[in-house]
């Protein structure tokens, strides 16, 4: 059990590290003229297909079709793909496009707070002093991050804030809704089909083949590969796989490496300016993340 939980810890930390790097690299792609809708549809279709191929080669290939043979699992998979996978992808990328990777990731990682509130509301977990401290830190940190200490003008564009908050809500839903499917099927199947379905739906808005191919060269092509393989395929797979040995609350809380990675990469690599109060806000959110990670329940099982 201890080794299984350690594996879960390593998976979620690795996955969220890849998410953080992938978000920062995606910001570079947008700066080079790549559209949000095109990147979402392309990365999902390619990454999802690769995951299903991996399942067919190395694991039980029968599960790839079995998940569609029951109405319950088929419907749940479609909802997971559209309301979870696609929503997480699009809202996160849109927030990066309107703001930057650091702010988008920090707002997305209000998801643990949303999960705490939801499971308490459902009576699945008691609302504790730890939960109260977590929410205060998160809200205060977000206030400083978004206003830079002044109510007269937001330091972050309003569209970036809205998309970021929607991204957090989508991540919370994505984390909780996948659990029943993971009890029956391998994470490769769940995530792979989720990506393929979400990418197919997004293709009606922006198909992968509708792109200026002159943009896909040099560093842009390298960045695209990084986003698809590390920021999408491995990140989502590792994150969902960790739910096999950790609770939904633990997985969302232990994913704290993503915003830390995104903030450091955005400021150091992309040279994005951050004001004093924004650093204070980011620090409060990171303190919140460390606090809840250290206080995470030691018992196994899913929320």
Q: Which labels suit this protein?
A:
single chain, 303 residues, disordered C terminus
Protein described:
The protein is an all-alpha fold. The protein has one domain (2-294). It has helices spanning 2-31, 36-58, 63-66, 71-98, 101-108, 111-121, 129-147, 158-177, 179-182, 187-203, 219-241, 248-254, 257-268, 276-294. Helix 1 (2-31) packs parallel to helix 13 (257-268). The longest helix has 30 residues, at 2-31.
* Span of the ends, CA to CA: 17 Å
Poorly predicted runs are 298-303
Average pLDDT metric: 85
Number of strands: 0
Radius of gyration: 19 Å
The count of domains is 1
Give the proportion of residues in helices.
over 70%
Give a summary of the structure in a few sentences.
By secondary structure, the chain is mainly α. It has helices at residues 2-31, 36-58, 63-66, 71-98, 101-108, 111-121, 129-147, 158-177, 179-182, 187-203, 219-241, 248-254, 257-268, 276-294.
